[in-house]
Design a protein that fits this description.
globular; 12 helices; mainly alpha; about 75% helix; single chain
């Protein structure tokens, strides 16, 4: 039977609904989160084509115009279009949150593998350092590093990423301690496999799956941390379009009735964080082997 687009679409829909029946509500949580994230990612990728105005244009419209007409989210005190700043601000917050999660995962996973496999004095010292960092509230630690490093995209990315390194370290180290006692690891040692080979081919593939869930949840948390730091004046300079910056600038106009200046940036921050949280929670439930036994 020749393939047709209608047949392919029907098979895709059937497979999609089949996943929903297999995993239940967890699948739809995952799908909802993925759709939210995808929509904002596409908005960031095609911001130049979507935004009706330049986000820095101070002649986009009347000052503090309410939502409606040409400015669907109104304008700010500098006559800039809020909707255009929302679109371009998605690039900044996504870039910082994703890069922070990538950087922290690379460092945390690497240290966790080496520490758990090596053991001894190195493991004890590194575990003590990571436990010390983990004991601090994430926002307080991020504020401390942001204050030391100063404003800027790279600096705020580093400040946010530091607080998640202990999370990956503790997770991967615990799994490495368990996996390195397995028979296939002992067999690899017996045939003379190098330490790097054992870590890369036998231990790393068995710990990476669980870090996917942590990665998604860390992005959600990093979004809130980045917005909080910028809101407090410790994150990005005013020249960079960012939702946290717009939130900070709009708060002083709320008592006089300009509610849209903080409502839309705040709603976008919450929506993006919820999207990644739902994505992570859905993955967590689906990757849970006990779920398949139901």
């Amino acid at each position: 039977m020749p393939f047709s687009p209608a047949t392919g679409l029907a098979q895709l829909i059937s497979r999609f609904t089949g996943m929903g029946k297999k995993y239940g509500v967890e699948w739809w949580i995952l799908v909802a989160g993925a759709l939210i994230v995808l929509a904002i990612v596409l908005m960031a990728m095609f911001s130049g084509a979507i935004a009706p105005f330049n986000p820095h244009d101070q002649n986009a419209g009347p000052q503090l115009a309410p939502p409606g007409g040409q400015h669907i989210m109104g304008t700010d005190n500098l006559q800039r279009d809020v909707w255009s700043r929302i679109i371009f601000g998605s690039q900044t917050i996504l870039r910082i949150a994703v890069l922070a999660a990538i950087f922290s995962s690379i460092i945390g996973i690497s240290l966790g593998l080496v520490s758990g496999f090596s053991g001894g004095f190195f493991d004890r010292v590194l575990s003590l350092v990571m436990d010390s960092l983990y004991s601090f509230p994430g926002l307080i630690l991020a504020i401390a590093f942001a204050t030391m490093l100063g404003p800027g995209v790279i600096n705020i990315t580093l400040a946010v990423s530091v607080i998640y390194i202990p999370t990956y370290f503790r997770l991967v180290r615990g799994q490495t301690l368990s996996i390195k006692e397995e028979l296939y690891v002992e067999a690899a040692k017996a045939i003379g496999a190098s330490r790097f080979t054992i870590l890369w081919k036998y231990i790393f593939p068995n710990v990476i799956a669980t870090t996917v869930v942590v990665f998604s949840l860390n992005i959600a948390d990093a979004i809130m941390i980045e917005a909080a730091l910028t809101y407090l004046g410790l994150g990005l300079p005013p020249s960079i379009v960012d939702w946290g910056m717009d939130l900070a600038m709009g708060k002083k106009f709320l008592p006089s009735g300009q509610w849209w200046l903080i409502t839309f940036p705040g709603a976008m921050i919450s929506m993006l964080a919820i999207g990644f949280t739902m994505l992570g929670e859905g993955l967590s439930e689906i990757l849970n082997p006990r779920l398949l036994e139901r």
